[in-house]
Write a structure and sequence with these properties.
Elements (H helix, E strand, L loop, with lengths): L1 H7 L2 H12 L2 H9 L5 H6 L10 H11 L16 H21 L5 H15 L2 H9 L6 H21 L16 H8 L7 H11 L21 H13 L11
Function: Lyase that catalyzes the C1-decarboxylation of 4-hydroxy-3-methoxy-5-(all-trans-polyprenyl)benzoic acid into 2-methoxy-6-(all-trans-polyprenyl)phenol during ubiquinone biosynthesis.
Catalytic activity: a 4-hydroxy-3-methoxy-5-(all-trans-polyprenyl)benzoate + H(+) = a 2-methoxy-6-(all-trans-polyprenyl)phenol + CO2
Pathway: Cofactor biosynthesis; ubiquinone biosynthesis
Length: about 250
């Protein structure tokens, strides 16, 4: 039901995503070759043989440590346009690469941080729905981490980074993880576990001594600029998708 809703409500966003992919050299290759990320592909990459600090090794360790498999991603069924169906399929299958790329864990809180990032980059309505409804499952400390740290991080990084949907992760497996981040202009997310420990020890409203936990920017509330841009993004970003910065 959730997958069907996501597929039937995002056509305009998918068209905008496809347009941005065509404008990017790597994204254009993806649309022409339409590679998949399935268990057979992952097995052929020999991730365990890659350097420890590489993207591929980090992805393999992430998948293995959490018992995930690439084939668990649902096939797109309700998008009739072949290119748009591939764009949505790629979005689903590339998602797990975003965890080692950003450092966010596959918890409800970590996934919400990624949904905010994806919402700002893609404008998909399903990401906005998750960003709005998901916080209902969080406790007070988790909500504090989300609103005070992850949302500001996602707002800044989502606008500043290259379009992540154009990433040919398969061609970057041997790259050092820090080099992949530099190439896409994205900084790791704040340390979620450390922030949760802090808020649970001093109370969810505490803010003392948190700057070192958010190296991308000093911890704090959204700037006025972010407040003005993030709220409209929830409701209308799929109508007015942000343009990717020049490479």
């Amino acid at each position: 039901m959730v997958a069907m809703l996501g597929e039937t409500t995002g056509e305009s966003a998918l068209r905008a995503m496809a347009s941005r992919m065509r404008a990017d050299p790597d994204g254009k290759v993806l649309l022409e070759e339409r590679p998949r990320i399935r268990d057979g592909d992952v097995a052929s990459w020999n991730l365990a043989s890659l350097p420890e600090a590489s993207l591929g090794r980090a992805y393999g360790d992430f998948m293995a440590s959490h018992g995930f498999d690439a084939d668990s991603r649902a096939e797109v069924r309700y998008v009739t346009d072949d290119e748009l169906a591939y764009v949505l399929q790629r979005y689903r299958e590339a998602h797990d690469f975003l965890h080692p790329l950003t450092g966010l864990p596959p918890t409800v809180l970590g996934e919400l941080g990624l949904k905010w990032l994806e919402m700002i980059q893609t404008g998909l309505p399903m990401t906005a729905m998750a960003a709005l409804v998901g916080p209902l499952r969080l406790d007070a400390a988790e909500r504090a981490v989300l609103t005070r740290h992850l949302v500001p991080w996602a707002a800044e990084q989502g606008r500043a980074a290259r379009f992540l949907m154009a990433a040919r992760f398969e061609a970057m497996l041997a790259w050092p993880l820090h080099q992949v981040r530099m190439d896409f202009g994205i900084a790791p997310a704040p340390d979620v576990d450390a922030l949760l420990r802090h808020y649970r020890s001093v109370g969810w409203g505490g803010r003392t001594g948190l700057a070192h936990l958010a190296p991308w920017k000093r911890a704090g509330a959204l700037s006025r600029e972010d407040e003005a841009s993030v709220a409209p993004a929830v409701w209308g970003s799929w109508r007015r998708p942000a343009h990717a910065p020049a490479r």
